């Protein structure tokens, strides 16, 4: 900058000779070179990012404005210098008495034109270079802006993906929390089950001890049985001897299960099974050894073995219940060992002409539920004499098996199919059931049933 000012001073004191013109051109060239050097120094301050480019452009524009002002100032200096030289020449001619106006004016014009050409040449080249530089920088900035917009789009897409990931993460976290809660509940339940299992183990140990005790008792009883076998043979009564016990319609109260001969008016002498409490047993099921899917006549007369599974017979039941009032007691047991009972105060069935209709059951009491009440006034049905179609439903006997007082199939059937795992033929059929104790669709099944009657005591 100092060199630039010195050159200006030199221009102001230049003489009106050809040598002075050459000096002026050299000074102008040096001045422009200094300006170029100054601009080049300014170029080195440009930054390489978007903000730095914008800052450089502002600086560049300011420099251009400064240069334009500098050019104007230089032009003014040249104009003043030209005017000064012209005045000096006039004054010199005036003083020396020489009139050389035409030549001086030509030379002054040449100097002025030369200076303008030098200034215009360097100025135009510099402006073009700066304009090209500006265009390049503008293009770079535009590209950066496009790239920034593209990056912004990618960033927005990433934000959406992050939002989706966060939502999925929240859903997964909720599921994880739910699963954690379920696992904790399972752990608590398992802990309770472990405690129950431990209790069961203790019970099993106690039961093992009881079983061992019972085994010892059985051994003792077997020895006693062997010792009393000969006595039993001597005390064995024949059918004729049993006929001497004339308990017409009622079992005696004895300490053990007994078998007696009975004589009822209208029917031949028959043998019956009595329990220790004086009840006459009319039906027993406990292992499925006896087929209960029998014909009408078989249910009428009765079938089976008194010491195993059997059915007493409908005709005998009709004659006995027609003669007097009988109570009915039903005992039930399922495959888990649970037991229950049903007691009815007035059990009565009709004659064969009346299809052994269930006329009455009386008042219910017990724990099994009144599942026989619904069947009152229903006819007895078997596979060869099915009365269920009269009730608007066909197929009860084929689906449930056995003979029973079916009414729309109903709420009970103790003579139906007996479930055995080894018998696949009844997998899709109903088995013996008593809805009040174990529903027809229950996971448990009835494994034992006993029906007993005895005269009502006044």
Automatic annotation (TrEMBL):
Keywords: Coiled coil, Disulfide bond. SUPFAM superfamilies: Fibrinogen C-terminal domain-like. Residues 64-224 form a coiled coil. Transmembrane segments: none annotated. Residues 242-457 form the Fibrinogen C-terminal domain. This is Fibrinogen-like protein 1. The lineage of its organism: Eukaryota, Metazoa, Ecdysozoa, Arthropoda, Hexapoda. The gene is LOC121502217.
